[in-house]
Specification:
Blueprint (H helix, E strand, L loop, with lengths): L1 H20 L2 E7 L19 H11 L4 E7 L2 H10 L4 E6 L8 E3 L4 E10 L19 E5 L3 H11 L5 E5 L3 H9 L5 E5 H11 L5 E3 L5 E10 L5 H17 L1 H6 L9
């Protein structure tokens, strides 16, 4: 009996060790993308954000997985997803190109692509009804971003758009607008407005009221990592949280409809 009593703590320790090692490690890679992913290019991990909060809460319901976050430049992030060097990305839009190497969860939240303009250059704003009305403007996009893909898709379909591609980031793109090097920017509305507040540019740069495109964000997972079972589990949670309001409360924490 004494021997059994002495061996019991060792048995429990070994059992706990087996349970821990049985966890599957899941690595999410992101680029700074407020309000969804907060941080800077010099950070190795996010400093928070609504998408980071959502993924943390989702995986708290799935103890068989161990969650890890990394911050990477966007184009490198997509390459690593394509090669299967990381598992997922927290907030991504579907495109035909990405669908070749990513599997997607249920939709999380709607987004709008909007045009941003300089308030000093266009004090009365800009008015347009169809894409051809924008043909005289130089429209800036960040290479590899959804706005770049979507507007080039419009061009391939015959829209006479004059696109200026920046191989950089959104801060540099908005800086080009302030310096008059481009006339308009195409960027996601909520993220663009957040950036303007953070940089103190809200009086200098304004979003146009008319959306140029609307779509949805998803969690994306590398096809090379084969996460069909995990995606099904996440979809069950996402659909349940959408129905009870928890999904909206996490992604829109300041909404008056927030669920506590």
């Amino acid at each position: 009996m004494r021997t059994l009593t002495k061996l019991l703590p060792l048995f429990i320790s070994l059992l706990m060790s087996v349970c821990v090692t049985a966890q599957q490690n899941i690595v999410f890679a992101d680029s700074p993308y407020p309000p969804y992913v907060l941080g800077s290019s010099s950070d190795k991990v996010p400093k928070g954000g609504t998408a980071v909060d959502l993924v943390n809460q989702l995986f708290s319901e799935l103890p068989e997985y161990n969650l890890e976050f990394r911050l990477l430049p966007w184009k490198r992030l997509l390459r690593e997803l394509e090669k299967g060097e990381v598992d997922g990305v927290t907030m991504v839009a579907k495109t035909p190109e990405r669908a070749q190497y990513l599997d997607f969860t249920s939709a999380l939240v709607r987004y709008e692509l909007a045009l941003f303009y300089s308030a000093s250059t266009f004090p009365n704003g800009i008015n347009w009804q169809q894409l051809s009305d924008l043909s005289d403007y130089r429209i800036g996009v960040v290479e590899g971003y959804l706005s770049d893909s979507k507007l080039h898709e419009f061009v391939d379909q015959g829209a006479p758009l004059n696109l200026v591609r920046l191989s950089g980031n959104e801060q540099q793109l908005f800086g080009m607008l302030l310096r008059g090097r481009i006339d308009l920017i195409c960027f996601k509305l909520e993220s663009g407005k957040t950036l303007l507040r953070q940089q103190g540019w809200s009086q200098d740069i304004k979003p146009n009221d008319r959306a140029i495109y609307q779509g949805s964000y998803y969690l994306g997972f590398s096809k090379a990592r084969q996460h069909a079972s995990l995606i099904n589990q996440l979809n069950n949670l996402i659909d349940q949280w959408r129905d009870n309001g928890k999904l909206d409360a996490i992604l829109h924490p300041h909404s008056p409809n927030r669920v506590n």
